[in-house]
Write the C-alpha cells for this entry.
Amino acid sequence: MSKKKTTPLHKKARWDKFCLEYVKDFDRIRSVRRAGFKTKSDKACHRTALRLLSNNVYCQEKIHKLLKEQEKQAGKTANEIIAELEKIGFSNISDYVKFGPEGVRLKDSGELTREQLAAISEVSETETKDGGSTRFKLHDKRAALVDLGKRFGLFPNRQVIDGKLDIELLPPIIK
C-alpha cells in the first residue's frame, strides 16, 4: 500500500503567508522575509522565492486566486485600469488648449470627450482687482506611461545579487 505524500500544515501556512505578501508588491525577496522563511541572505531569499513561484503549484494557484480577489475588491478589471492609465499617458495638451499669437485659451469642456476629461487633474480660476489667472493641469503623464511600461514588461525591475544581474519578472496580466 503506497502512502500519499502530504504537505505539513506549517509549510502551507508559510506558503500562504508568502503568497499574501507577494501580491502586495511583487517583491520576491521581501515577500520571503515577511513570510517568515529562515534565510540568511538575499541570494537565499531569491532562490526560495523562485522555487515557490516556479515549481510550487499550490503557490501559483494561490497567487492567481489572490489576484482575482484583489481585482474583484477593486471593482475594476486590469483592462479597465490600463485604459485609465492610457487616457492619462496618451493625452495631448492640444486637445485642451489653443495657443498662438493671441495667447492661450482653454477649450470649452463641452468640446472634450469623456476620455479627455479623465486626464484632467485640476482646473481653477482666480480673479483679483488687477485681473486674474486660470490654472489648468493634467494628471502626471510620465508616471502613467511608466506604470504602463512596467505592466507590459518594457521596464523590468532589476536586482543585482552577487554581481549577477537577475531580472525580476512581472506578474502576468489577469484577464
User: Anything to note?
Assistant: Residues 57-74 form the longest helix (18 residues). The CA atoms of residues 18 and 134 lie 50 Å apart.
